[in-house]
User: Fold these one by one.
Assistant:
Number 1:
Amino acid sequence: MQWGSASEFFAMGGYGLYVWTSFIATALCMGWEVLALWRRRAAARAEQRAGLLGDTDETTA
Amino acid sequence: MSVNWSKYSAPQAFYPLAGRLIPWFAVVAVALMGVGLYMGFFVAPTDFQQGESYRIIFVHVPAAWMSMFLYVVMAVWAGIGLGLNARLSFMMAQAIAPTGAMFTFLALLTGAMWGKPTWGAWWVWDARLTSELILLFQYAGVMLLRTSIDDLRRADRSSAVFALVGVVNVPIIYYSVQWWNTLHQGASVSMSTGSKMAATMLMAMLIMTIAFWLYSIAVILARVRCIVVERDSLPVWDERSAVSQEVVEVR
Amino acid sequence: MNRSSMWEAVSGIVKRDLLLAMRRRSDAAMSVFFLVIVASLFPLGVGPEPAVLRTIGPGVLWVAALLACLLSLSRVFTADYVDGALEQMVLVPQPLAVLVAGKVVAHWLISGLPVVLLSPLLGLQFGLSGDALGVLVLSLLLGTPTLSMIGAIGAALVLGVRGSGLLVALLVLPLYVPVLIFGAGAVTSSMAGIGAEANLSLLGACLVLSLFLAPWATAAALRIALE
C-alpha cells in the first residue's frame, strides 16, 4: 500500500484534479449511457405493447 | 434472400440470445473494472517521471483503443450488411456508433487531462490526438447521416458506405499528421513516456481494456435489442422486408 | 463492353455537363468569387504584417480552395437527380463507376480548374514568392481532383436528403484532412527550403487512391439513393 492516508490518496500527488476529473467523467459517461439505454428499452417496450394492441383492429382493415 | 447463413442472423432469433448474454458480459465487465481500478490505484507504483498523473492512462488508453477498435468493428458490420444484405448487421453498426463516439469523446477529454500536467497544454496537434478528433467527426457523420434519412433501408446502407469510406481515412490521417509534425518539428511528444512501464501498470491497463471491451459488448447488445423492438413497431418494417414476415410466419 | 463505347459515354457526360455549365456561367463563377472573398478576408482579420501573411498564406489558400470545392458539390448530381437523368445512368450498360468518373471530371473542370488558375493571383496577396507560387499551383493541380473525387461520395450520399447542404460539409470535411495537410505542407516546405517533392508525391498518391476507390464508392451511394 502506497498511500499514507485517505487525503493523500485523493490529492494524487498534486494531480488530483486531473486524475479524478478523468475517472469521474468516464464513470458519468458510462452510467449515463446505461441509464439512457434503460429508458430507451422501457420506451420501446411500451410502444411495442401499444402497437400490438393497436394491431388487432388496424391490420385487419 | 441469403439470410439463413446462421440461425441467429434474423433479428427475432437474435433478440433472446442477446438478452441471455448481456448479464454475463455486464457482470464480468464490472468485476474486471473493480480489479483494474484496485490494481491501478493501489498496486501499480508511482511513475518516477510523471508522478501520480500517469494513472489517467488507466481510463485514457482503454478508451482510445476501444474508440478505434469499435470504429473498425462498426465498419466490418456495415460491410457485411452491404455484402450479404443482412439487416441485423446494419443494426449492429447502428448500435456500435454511439458507444464508439462516447469512447472517442472520453479519450479526448482524458487526453487533455493527461496532457495539461505532462505537456503543459490541454491540446497538442499530435498524430494520435488529431486522428481521435477526426474519428469523433466521423462517428458524428455516421450518426447524423443516419438520422437525416427517413427511409430506414437507405439510412442503413448510406451510413454503411460512409463508415467504410471513413475506415480508409483514419490511418491516412494518422500518418499524415505524424509526417506533418516531423516537418514542423513541433513538440516531439509521445504518449508512452519511456518503454519502462512496470508490469503491474501494464497489467492494470490491460484489465481495464478488457473490462471496457466487455462493457461495450453488453451495452451494444442492449442497444441492438432496443433497435429490434423499435424497428419492429414501425409500420415501415412490414412493407419493406419479406424476411421479417417469414420469421413471423415461422413462429 | 468495348473500350470505345465506354470512352464515348464518359466524354459524352463531360461534354454535356460542360455545356450545361456554360449556359449557367454564374454558378461556376460563384465558387471562384467565394474563394477570392474568403482569401481576401484573412489579411483583413489577421492584419497586414507580411511575415504573418506569408506564414498563414498556404494554409489559408488551401482551406479556401477546400471550401470553394465544398460549395459546388451540390451541383454534381442534384440536377440529374431531379430530372431523372441519373436513373438512366444506372440503367445503361456502361459501369456506373466509370460514368461517375466522367461527372467528377466535369465538376473539376468547372469548379476545380478555375481555382487552380486563380491561385497564383491570390498567393500574391499573401506575399508568396515565385517558387512558392509554382508549388501552390502544382499542389492544387494534384489536390483539387482528389477533392472532387472524395466530394462526389458525399454528394451522392446526401442526394435528396433534407438539410443536405450542411450535412455534406460534415461528412466530407474530415475526409479532406490528408489532402489539406499534404497540399499546404508542400507550399510551406518549399518556402522553408526543404523541397516540396515528398509532399507532392504524397498528394499524387492520394489522387491515385481516390481515383481507384471514390468512383466505386460513389456509384454504390448513388444506387442506394436511387433505390
Number 2:
Amino acid sequence: MFAYIIRRIAYAIPILIGVNILTFYLFFVVNSPDDMARLHLGMKHVTPEAIEKWKASHGYDKPLLLNKQAEGVEQLTDTIFFEKSVRLFAFDFGYSDDGRDISYDISQRMLPSLAIAIPALIIGLMVNITFAMLMAFFRGTYVDVSGVILCVVLMSISGMFYIIGGQYLLAKVFRLMPISGFAAGIDTIKFIILPVLIGVVSGIGSGSRWYRTFFLEEAGKDYIRTARAKGLSESLVLFRHILRNALIPIVTGVVVILPLLFMGSLLTESFFSIPGLGSYTIDAINKQDFAVVRAMVFLGTVLYIVGLILVDITYTIVDPRVRLS
Amino acid sequence: MQASHTQQNPDIRISLAAICCIFLLLAGCDGQPWNRPYPADDAGRNIYYASFSERPNHLDPAQSYSSNEVTFTGQIYEPPLQYHYLKRPYQLIPLTATTVPVAHYLDADGQPLPDDAENKLIAFSYYDIQIQTGIHYQPHPAFARDEQGDLLYAALGEAELEDIHTLGDFSVTGTRELVAADYVYQIKRLAHPKLHSPIFGLMSDYIVGLGEYADTLEAAYEKEADGREGGVYLDLAHYPLAGAEVLDRYRYRVTIEGKYPQLLYWLAMPFFAPVAPEVDAFYSQPGMQERNITLDWYPVGTGPYMLTVNNPNRQMVMERNPNFHGEHYPDAGEPGDREAGLLDDAGKPMPFIERIVFSLEKEDIPYWNKFLQGYYDSSGISSDSFDQAVNIGAGGEVNLTEGMQSQGIRLNTAVATSIYYTGFNMQDPVVGGDSERARKLRLAISIAIDFEEYISIFLNGRGIAAQGMIPPGIFGHAEGEAGINPYVYDITGSGQQRKSIEEARRLLAEAGYPEGRDIRSGKPLVLYFDTASTGPDAKARLDWLAKQFDKLNLQLVIRGTDYNRFQDKMLKGTAQIFQWGWNADYPDPENFLFLLYGPNSKVGLNGENAANYSNPEFDRLFDEVKNMENSPDRARLIGEMMDIARYDAPWVWGFFPKQFSLHHGWYKNSKPNLMANNGIKYKRILPEQRAALQAQWNRPVLWPLYAIAALLLLVVLPAMLAYRRQQRQPAVRESH
C-alpha cells in the first residue's frame, strides 16, 4: 500500500502543475498586470509610471510564460509564471499583493471554516442516516413515501432560500439567535448554531435519499434474507447488517470531502459573515490578488488529491476484500 | 405497553429541557436578548456599532485612499486641517495646525511676490504650517524607552521576536510629542519606492522636487536592501526634500510649483498626516512583516481613536486614545442646526464615544435586519429595503414609513459630491468631434435619455438630474434659471422641463439622421454603448437605456465586458458611448471641471477626461479658474465654462446621487458631511436607551421550539408504534 500511496503522490505532481498553469492562464486572460496595478493603486490619478513601478515592485514586470529576451533555461524561469509558482510546491505561499503573509491568513481563516463545516457534516450525517434508515425500515409504507416526497421538496429548494429564510425566521422573527457574525471562544457556539442548522436542513433531502438507496440495496441482498430467515429481529438486521455494509459507500463518500472542509463555503460564509477561507478566495478574486488566488487553488487541488488518496485507503479499511496495488 | 410509555415521556421531557437549557446557557442566561451579536458585558456601554462590507486594503496613510479605508484612518491620523463638521459650504479649519495656512508666492528667481500677483508670474508657492504644541501619539511600543532613554524595541532580533505574534504582545508602550518633522517625514514617504502612494503622481507635479526625490529614494533603497526582500529601513531624514522642510520643532514648510490653492484640501486628508520616524523604523525591522506587523496593519496616530483590534475578516475595534489632545464640539453651524439639536453639545469635549466596533457584514439583508433589531446604530438604505424604510409623497417629499417612525429611526439626506454621467468619446467619428452634425446628434441623445425617469425607476428618487457637472453644495453650482441647461431643458414658470422628443428628433434630422437613418447611406444609425455592468441587475438598466435610444429610432448595441477590458477600451479610445462616475476628492469646482479639461484626456494622456473632450476656450478658462479663490469672478467664469460644455454636449449630464442614511434615536449629532472623514468624534450615543430598546425589540419567541418538539413527537410516535406493531406481527408465508 505504501508503494501505491507514493505512486499516487507522484501522479499528483503533474496534476498540480497542470492546475497551476490553468489557473495562471485563466487569471491573466481576465486580468493583466496593468489592471492589477491600477486596482491596487486606487483607480484615481494613476500614472503609467506608477503602474510600471508597482509591477516591478511586485514581480509582475516580466513576461507571463515565456521570456524571449532571455537565453537558455531562463526563457522559462525568468517569467511571472515560474517565479510565482515554484514556491508553491514547497508550500511557501509568500505574500499577498497587499503585503500580507498568505500562510498566516490561511491559518487564521481555517478554523472559522471548520467551526461551521465539521458540526454541519457530523450532525448532517447523523440526521441523514437516521432519516434514511427510517425510510428504509418502513419501505413501501406511508412513512417511506412521505419521506421521499419531503426529500424531493427539500432538494428542490435553493441553498440561498434556506439561508435567507433561516435568517428571517429564526433570527429575525423568532429572535432566537444572531442573524450573522462570529466570535472567538465559547461565544462561537451562539453564532454557528444557525449556519450549522441551515447546513444540516439543506442537506437532508439529497443526503437522505442517497443513503436510502444504499440501505435498500443492501436490504435486498441474499445475506439479509438469510439473516431474517434465521430469525433475527428487523432492528438487528437493520443495525447489525444493513447499516454496517451500507456505511462503506457512505464513509468513502464522506472521506473524499473531508479535506475540502478546510476550504469553507462561499455562500454561507458570505451571508453569515464568517471569516473563513471561502470568503478569502472570493475577496482575492474581486481584488485581483493573484498571489492569494493561486495559493487557494493550489491548496484546494492538494486537498482534493489528499481526499482521493484517503478514500482509497479507507476502502481497504472498511472492506477487507479491497487491496491496493 | 404502559411501562414503555411512561419511559418515553420523561425522555422527551428531558430532551426538551436540554434543548431549552442549551439555548439559555448559550444566549439567555446573561439576561440579554438571545440574538444579540455582541458580548453581554458590552450591553449598556458607550460603544458605537457600525459595519464594513469590504476589508480595507491599506491603513498606511501614504496609501489609504478609498472610502472604506479612510473610515478608519480618518479617526486615527490627524492631518493639519479638517472640514468644519456643521457649516456649509464646506469650510476648512485647523486640526493640529494653529491656523489655516496662507500661500506665499515667489517668482522664478525666488523673490517674494504680492498676494495678488498674476498667476503667470508665480513660479512657486509655499505654505508655512504651525502645529499646536502638546499633542501626543497614542500609546505604542515604537515609543517605549528603557531606563537609559533608549528606544526599547528598536533593534529586535529573531530571539526577541520569537513570542511576538501581534502588536499586543509587546508589553511596554510609550508616547512622544508630535513635532513638525513628523509631517515632513510623511510627505517624503509619498515618494517611497515600496509604498506606491496613489497620489504620488499627482503630488510630484506640485511639490517641489518630489518626482526626483522618488528616484533618489529608489537608489538609496536598493543600496540599503542589498538584495534583501524585506526588513529594510530607509531613514528619510537623511534625504532632504526641497518641497517639504522643517522650520523648527512646530513649524514646517510645503513648497509647490506655481500656484495650487487646492493643496489646502489635500492637507485635510490622511496623506498629509504625521508619521513618526521611529514608528516606521520599528515596523521595518526584519521579522516584522513575516508576522504581519506593519504600519499598514497597525496604524499609529494622534487622533481621538486608536485601532485596538484589526481583524478585517471579522471585526475592527477602535478605542478612545488616552493621549488625545482634546477638542471641543463646534459652537456654530448653519441655520437650522440648533433647532435640529446639532448644537446641544456645543463646546463639550470630544470624543463622546468610548469605543467603536466595526463588524464585517457582506450582505445587505443581515445588515439591514440587524439595524432594525438595534444592533447597528446607523445604516444606509439598499434598494431592496427602500420601500420598507421610505415613502415618497406625490410631491416628491421623502418620509419615513410608519414602521421606521415607530422605532424612533431618523432619516438624513444629502446630495453627494459625485456625478454619474453618460459620455461620448469625442474622438469617435460618429458621435465625437466638433462638427455641427455630431453636436446635434449628441444633443438629441441628451434630450432622449430621460434621467428623471431613470432616477425614479432605478434609484427610488435618490438623485437629482444634473444640469452640468458641478453638484449642489460645491462653489460654481448655479441654482435657478442660470443653472438650467437650455439645450436639453425648457425653462418653465415652475422650473425646467426636459425638451420634447420631437425636438430631439428635429435635432437628429438636422444632424443628418432623420428617423434614425443616415441620410447619406439610408441605413439605420447603429450606436455602441460600452459598459462593465453585465450582470442580471444591470440588464434592466441597459434595456431601459436602449429604449431611450429607440425613442429616436436609434439602434443601441450594448457591448458588455469586464471592468479591466472596459478600462482598456477607455484608455485606447475605442469606446463610443459609455457611463462613468466621479467622486470628488475635495469640494472645489476644479475637481469637477478638470474632467473635461483637454490636457487631462484619457487617451494618450491617461487623465480623468474620459470623453477626451477638448475645447481651447474651455481649457483656457479652466487654466484661469483653477487657481482663483472663490469669488464672483470665478463664478462667472465657471458659468461661461458650463455654457461651452452644455453647448458641445460631450456628456449626457446624468445625475447627482442623493445619499439617504438612517440612524436610531439614541444616535446623536448625525449630520451628513461628505468631505470630512473624521466624523465619529462628533457623534454621541445614549447607551441606556439603546440597551432598553434592544431588549424590548428582541424578546425571543419560544413557541416555535415547542412546536418543533411537538412535530418531532408527531413523527416519531407513530413510527415507533408502527415499528412495535411490525415486530409483534407473526411471520406470514407468501404464497404465489
Number 3:
Amino acid sequence: MTAKTPTLAVWKFASCSGCQLTLLNCEDDFLSIVGAIDIVYFPEATKTMADGPYDLSIVEGSITTAHEAEQIQRIRASSTTLITVGACATAGGIQALKNWADVDEFISIVYPHPEFINSLGTSTPIADHVKVDFELHGCPISQRQLIEVIDSFLHRRKPNTPSYSVCVECKLNETTCVMIANGTPCMGPVTRAGCGALCPAFNRGCYGCFGPSETPNIASLRDLWHSIGVADADLALALRTFNAYAPEFREASDHYVG
Amino acid sequence: MSDDTREISVDYLARVEGEGALFLKLNGDEVEDLRFTIFEPPRFYEAFLRGRRFSEAPDITARICGICPVAYQMSAVNAMENAAGAVVLDPIRELRRLLYFGEWIESHTLHVYMLHTPDFLGYPSAIEMAGDFPDIVTNALRLKKLGNRIMTVVGGREINPINVKVGGFYRAPLGTDLDALKDELRWAIDTAAETVELVAGFEFPDFTMDYEFVSLRHSDEYAILDGRIVSSEGLDIDVTEWGDHFEETQVEWSNALHARLKERGRYHVGPMARFANNGDHLTPVAQVAADAAGLRPGESNPFRSIIVRAVEIVLACEEALGIIERYVRPDPAAEAVEPRSAVGHGASEAPRGLLYHRYELDSSGFIADTQIVPPTSQNQASIEEDLRAYVRGRTHLDDETLQWQLEQAIRNYDPCISCATHFLDLTVERAGRQ
C-alpha cells in the first residue's frame, strides 16, 4: 500500500517574504523536497492554487488587519498541521513596534490620506489567534532548521531545534566571546540558538533576531551590559527589534525603557 | 450598452513577491476601470524608525524585503554616510559592490527562471517546468545558489545579511574565502550568457511603450551602488536633489504610495532603465550576449525586460569575478562614522530599480524622520499604463488568455510588493460581453 504524497500550502501575512524565500533557497534539496511533498498552494512560486484541506500549512507573517484575522481561522480549519515560521509569525515581527504606538499617528506619518488605510492597532503572532503545532523562530529562519522541520513532519517525529542560547553555539564553534574579550554588547546570552552564532563570528554582538531563548535571564544580561557602559535605554532598544513582542523581550523592554 | 461590460479579476497574483491584485472592467472595447492593487498590509517602517539609532538603519530596513535586503542596507548606509559627511575608501566600496552583485544574481535568477520563464513556456511554475526542462531548472538552482554563496561569504547569510554597517563591514572576508568562488563564477558567466540566448528566443508580443527611464549612472561603471540620478529625458541630478524632482502620492486602491516626476509624471525604473542609461558600461561577455540577442539600449518592449535581466546576470557574474581578482582586504573593515544633526540621502540600484532613502538625524544620531521610496512604488503608474495600453486592441481575447497575458505584463516588472508596502490580485470586469 502506498501512502499519498502529503500536500503543502505556504501562506503569507504581514512580512518581508524572506522566510518563504528560504524554502526556494534550498537549492540543493529543492527538487527532493518537491518530490516528497506536493506543493498545492504557494503563490510566490506557482499559479496553482488548490483549495484545502492541506496536510501541512507553513505560515509566514503576522496578523495586522481584520481580514487577516479571519483568514488565519479558515487556514487553521483546513490544515491538519500548522507550522509558523519567522519572527513575524511567531512574535509579531518588527511591525509589532506599532503595538506601543498610536496606530492613527503611525498611519498619518506614512500616508497623506489616512482614510484609505485599513489596519488594526496591533501586529500579533499567529499563536495569539489559532492553535499552532510548531513554531520555527528566526529573522530569517535557518534553512537547515526549515528542512529539519519539513523532514520531521514527513517522518512524524518531533523537530530537533534547540531552545538554548546563542552562547552554546559560540562555545561549540570556539568563537571568542565578543562581550568578555571586546566589551561589545551582545544579546547572545538571552537569544535562542539556531543561526550558528553568526554575528559573534563576524566580530559583532548578537542582535537577537531568533528571539528569546528558554528562560532568558535578562536581568543578568543587564548587569553585564551596565559593566561595559550600556545604559537601560539602549538595552530597551535592543530588546525592541524583530522579536519585540515576544513576551520575555516585551516585559523586559517595558521595564527598562525608563 | 450596460450589458456590454465584463470584468476580469485576479484576487491574488502568483509568482510575484507579496500580495497584489488586478481588477479590469471593460465596456465593449473600452477600458472602464483598471486597478493594480496592493493589498499587502502596511508595516509602517517610516514611523517606527523614528527614535532609533542611525546605526540600526541597515539591519532594520533590510527587513522590508527578504529578496533584496542588500539593496536596503546599501541605500541606508549611503544615506547615513551622506548625513555624516563620510566617504568610504575604495576597498570597502568594492566589497559592497560584490555583495550587491551577489543579490542581483540571486534575485534576477529567481525571477528570470523560476517566476517569469514559466509564463513564456506555459507552465504554472518552475516545479512543473522541471519535468520537461530539467537542465534549465538545474542551471537556475545552481546560479541562484552562487548568488546566495556570494552573499553568505561577504554578508554572513543570504537573507538579512549581518555583516553590513554604516562605514563598512564588521569583518572583511579573507581573499582565500573569495577565491573559492572563482571557478563557479566562470561557469556562471557562460551559463548566464546561454540564458540570454534562451530567453531571447521566446515569443514576445508586438508591444512598445514610451517610457522615461530613470536610473543611477556612474561615470565608469554600470551603476549599482551609487552615482547620479539620470533619465532618458535629460534629468541629471545629485541624489540629494531627489525631493526637488520627485514626489509621492497616494491612491485609494493601494497600500503603496505612487512616486512620480513632478514635471512629467510616470516613469520607469529597473533593468530596462539601467540598460537605457548605462548601456555603454556593459562588461565584455554581457555586451556580446546583448548584441547577439539584438538588444539595444532604449529597448521599450516591457516583455523583453527578461532579456535585459538575463544580460544583467552575465554582467553581475563578470563584475563579481573582477572584484575578486582585484580584491584588497579592507583594513580596517569599517571606518568610524560620527553622526551629526543633518539630513542624509542615499540611493542604489535594487534588482528591481532605483531605491531612495532619506533620513533626518539629530545631533546624537537618533532618526527624526525617514523617507523610503522602493522601485515598485515608482513603477506602479507605469505598470497600470502598460496594462491599459496592452488591453486596447486585445479586447477580443477571451478572459483566460487576457488574464494570463496581463499577469505576465505585471511580472515584466518583477514587482516586489513587500517593498512597496513597506505593497498584487487580477479582476477583469467586462461590461457588455455578448
